[in-house]
Design goal:
- The chain has 160 residues and is mostly helical.
- It contains 8 helices and 4 strands, in the order αβαααβαβααβα.
- It has a two-stranded parallel ribbon.
- Helix 1 crosses helix 8, helix 2 packs across helix 4 and helix 4 runs parallel beside helix 5.
- It is globular.
């Protein structure tokens, strides 16, 4: 959350000359509601089912840079689907998260005690991110341009 996946994903797509897609955008467009509204109205389990379908569809259809929501890797089937793809895990520490997002209540999983909840989410997810990652790129103190270059370098990709 707040790591810059959309900004960096768009930059990477532009530098590689390929299309960009974000499964969170796909979900919002299909549902006609924000992700926060889906969480509140339908619950996390319903959101995760929608997210799983959105990721599966996007991986099957899309040939460019694809950004996934932070919880997408919670699903074992999704992690298996990602195994055949180049995956960049954009990492960040809690202080950077606070600086970038303020860890505000617009994040449904961080509504109460955001710092503690962010740390707990990362402790629960970090190993899953690392499991699917072809490369880990730290974003702390870096511009989106620097992060996108680091991702290109880590994946040994050349600009179009």
């Amino acid at each position: 959350m707040g790591v810059g996946k959309s900004t960096v994903g768009e930059l990477l797509a532009g530098r590689l000359g390929v299309p960009y897609r974000d499964t969170d955008d796909d979900i919002v467009a299909a549902a006609g509601r924000t992700i926060a509204e889906i969480f509140v109205d339908d619950g996390e389990a319903a959101f995760r089912a929608i997210e799983k379908r959105a990721v599966r569809t996007a991986l099957a259809e899309h040939t460019g840079v694809l950004a996934l929501g932070g919880g997408a890797v919670l699903d074992a089937d999704t992690r298996a689907l990602l195994s055949g793809h180049r995956v960049v895990y954009l990492s960040m520490d809690v202080e950077e998260a606070v600086r970038r997002t303020g860890l505000n209540a617009a994040r449904p999983l961080l509504a109460v005690n955001p710092r503690r909840q962010w740390r707990e989410l990362m402790e629960a997810r970090r190993h899953l991110y690392e499991e699917v990652a072809s490369a880990v790129v730290a974003t702390d103190g870096r511009t989106p341009e620097e992060v996108s270059q680091a991702a290109l370098d880590a994946l040994e990709l050349k600009e179009a």
